[in-house]
């Protein structure tokens, strides 16, 4: 399912028109065939922010993530304002909603649409490899119990090598990858966000961590979590935010969560 499920693409309303795209590119430094917004002057940063904010306001779009210069995140390749948790994939050549990483094994991005299927793929694969590993070990034990390993040394060596290869090149890498992504899912983080945490406007310490239960529910959904069916929660564009403190910008967010007491983790939800 993770292979055949389409990659989550950005909705059309986030794409800028030709005039806006030309305006933003006109005030952005261009060098070596690419735009370099991080090298902009203060005046250019202000102009870029004004252009993007005006477009977002006219379209009725709301964002919580900004870049290091407090600008809305703009993709110069795709000519769009990136929704929250969206990133451009250089391998696919377009922006991906809730981008996690580009997986070479399925030859597409792991994103909002197929993250559950990717997790199930890892779980199913680990179960299959564990079964193969255990049955192989059972063969080795049988050789020892029946004292046949000296008589059938070639068969014994083949089985033993298969067990070693399964453990080193199969179960261990997949197991480590599964543990890593389970940890990400419980924290409501993506691989990309762990490498570079999101910069949420109004609160640099805010995150998407709603607690283990809600985080896992956002990935696996209700009920049929163990089956490859579409059951994830949300639209991939808007996400609950856990703020470390109240701020004026919180009123602009579609979904918001305020962390009232950091010591006992009491949360007050506002929808």
Automatic annotation (TrEMBL):
<dbReference type="InterPro" id="IPR001594">
    <property type="entry name" value="Palmitoyltrfase_DHHC"/>
</dbReference>
<feature type="transmembrane region" description="Helical">
    <location>
        <begin position="153"/>
        <end position="174"/>
    </location>
</feature>
<feature type="transmembrane region" description="Helical">
    <location>
        <begin position="118"/>
        <end position="141"/>
    </location>
</feature>
<dbReference type="GO" id="GO:0019706">
    <property type="term" value="F:protein-cysteine S-palmitoyltransferase activity"/>
</dbReference>
<keyword id="KW-0808">Transferase</keyword>
<comment type="similarity">
    <text>Belongs to the DHHC palmitoyltransferase family.</text>
</comment>
<dbReference type="Pfam" id="PF01529">
    <property type="entry name" value="DHHC"/>
</dbReference>
<dbReference type="GO" id="GO:0016020">
    <property type="term" value="C:membrane"/>
</dbReference>
<feature type="domain" description="Palmitoyltransferase DHHC">
    <location>
        <begin position="70"/>
        <end position="196"/>
    </location>
</feature>
<protein>
    <recommendedName>
        <fullName>Palmitoyltransferase</fullName>
        <ecNumber>2.3.1.225</ecNumber>
    </recommendedName>
</protein>
<keyword id="KW-0472">Membrane</keyword>
<dbReference type="InterPro" id="IPR039859">
    <property type="entry name" value="PFA4/ZDH16/20/ERF2-like"/>
</dbReference>
<keyword id="KW-1133">Transmembrane helix</keyword>
<keyword id="KW-0812">Transmembrane</keyword>
<keyword id="KW-0012">Acyltransferase</keyword>
């Amino acid at each position: 399912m993770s292979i055949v499920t389409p990659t989550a693409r950005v909705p059309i309303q986030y794409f800028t028109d030709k005039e806006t795209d030309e305006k933003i590119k006109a005030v952005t430094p261009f060098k070596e065939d690419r735009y370099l917004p991080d090298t902009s002057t203060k005046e250019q940063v202000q102009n870029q922010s004004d252009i993007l904010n005006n477009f977002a306001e006219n379209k009725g779009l709301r964002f919580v993530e900004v870049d290091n210069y407090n600008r809305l995140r703009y993709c110069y390749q795709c000519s769009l304002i990136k929704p929250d948790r969206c990133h451009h994939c250089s391998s696919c050549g377009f922006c991906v909603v809730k981008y996690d990483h580009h997986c070479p094994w399925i030859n597409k991005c792991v994103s909002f649409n197929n993250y559950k299927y990717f997790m199930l793929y890892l779980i199913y694969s680990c179960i299959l490899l564990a079964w193969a590993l255990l049955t192989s070990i059972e063969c080795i034990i049988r050789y020892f119990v029946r004292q046949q390993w000296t008589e059938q040394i070639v068969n014994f060596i083949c089985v033993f090598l298969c067990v070693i290869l399964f453990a080193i090149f199969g179960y261990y890498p997949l197991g480590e990858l599964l543990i890593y992504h389970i940890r990400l899912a419980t924290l409501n983080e993506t691989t990309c966000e762990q490498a570079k945490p999101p910069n949420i406007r109004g609160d640099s310490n805010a995150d998407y961590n709603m607690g283990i239960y809600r985080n896992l529910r956002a990935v696996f959904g209700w009920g049929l979590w163990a089956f490859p069916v579409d059951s994830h929660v949300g639209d991939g564009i808007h996400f609950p935010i856990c703020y470390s403190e109240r701020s004026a910008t919180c009123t602009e967010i579609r979904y918001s969560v305020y962390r009232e007491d950091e010591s006992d983790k009491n949360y007050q939800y506002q929808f």
